[in-house]
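Appendix B. One record, verbatim.
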Amino acid sequence: MTASDAGRQDARSPMETPVPPAPVEATVRPLPRLGRGVVWSDIVAEIEHDLQERMRDAA
């Protein structure tokens, strides 16, 4: 490409042509903000513990 071709769209090589992003169908849900000293691993452990108790009670 020469300096005179710099502003022309058709002067691009095929490798410089932008590729549109792939469509994303996933729903993104941000995690809620946690209070000071609270970590997600503690919350997950508590949920798993509750589930185990319910399974034990159901048996």
